[in-house]
Amino acid sequence: MRFYPSFNKVLDTFNKVSGNQTGIIKATAMPLINQDKSISLKSITGNMPKYHKVLLERQSGDVQYHVIGYGNFYEEALIKYTGESVERYSSMVAPKLVEDKVVYDTYKNMCKRGKVMPLKYIDVFTKEQLEEMSTYISDFSKEKITEDDVVGWLQCPSLVNKGENIWVPAIMLFVGYQVNLEKGEKQYIQGFSTGTASHTDLKKALVNAIVEYLQIDSFMITWHTKRKCKRINIDDETVKKALDEIGLGDDSIYEIIPVEMTLPDNSVPTFGTFLRRKDNKMPYLLFGVQGDFDVKNGVYRSIMEGISIAHSGYFNTIYNRDLIEHVMNNDSKFLDLDLNVLYYSAPKHIDEKNKLIEEFIDGEINLSDIKTIENLDTDSQLKELLKTVSEISEYAVYMDMTSPELRDKGWYTMRVLIPEILEMCIPEFPFKDHPRMKEHGGIINEYPHPMP
């Protein structure tokens, strides 16, 4: 233990970035109630200021930041909550920090300025998808992008080639990016926080950002192409004991179904875990995914991520009955990362959901047999990650999007963009026209993905 009492150190880290009058997050953080008495997971959440009203110049509506920290102990939950809050804030503020560096021009003209990301990596939706999306999202283009369409471009350093800079669409980097209608820019894709990570250690922030991108790619390919996975037999006593301590052992109300989702060209072991209620009650089905070179930690964290969102089903059943009715409707649309979670939580179409899980599983593997790198220190992980990215990407870039007020408090927020592979998407609209999705056979599974 580096600090004692440890909670004082964690609380001090939280206090440096929080406050009721100042700070990037509100000083009030709330532990979530354990709805299932048998589950002893510690969770903390809270509210972030309404940054969108200033940054996005949008007075109506709301933004869901999906910030939650969880763990076996409140210290772990609070530091994760703080880190996620820093990450979300950085993603929203970053566009303002670089707005003077964004160049609005066509792809054809940008090619004269230097190396540019090909349009095929932003042109990821079919014509039919674009037409439908434009009815739900204002300023979204109905037409496929061309070389003569105006896009906001930002030059970033290459992640794999030292000294090289690449122009990439700014909208693919930032959650809080707004298209510039005055410049003739249109929206062709939505920005997600995939590939963004905050940490008090710069290298660890970069490692976490790359790992997140690679794990989401593995999951998206597996989910939408129904790629077969091996079910993992957890044969490690340490992991078993940790699960027992929070009520997720063999006698749990949930059946734990971990599967290996690692792709052949991805060196990061990736784990997806379904948690299925044995009594067929709400929440019936939960899901979590994690990539980690430490396979024990990876499979454990995927389970923890899944169980951490169990409260959503209870909360919406009590306070948002209209959402429950919406996801029960066969014609429902999944336009955010809440409705899809609620759909799988609802104890309806149980046989259908069970069949879906079964279609992914083919065979079994022991956790102890999953291959990974020998040295797990940060430098070794970063070296292996850069090697992996260099083999699958030519246009990967990175960006330090730490705002001055956070750097002063010891935080770093790193953003990576690896356009050749898949990032998070709206559940209703997967990337049907992305080259990587096509390379893997295209979309077979039309069910909305279960990621929160």
UniProtKB/TrEMBL annotation:
Pfam families in alphabetical order: YcaO
UniProt domain YcaO: residue ranges: 69-452
NCBIfam families: TOMM_cyclo_SagD
Protein name: Thiazole/oxazole-forming peptide maturase, SagD family component
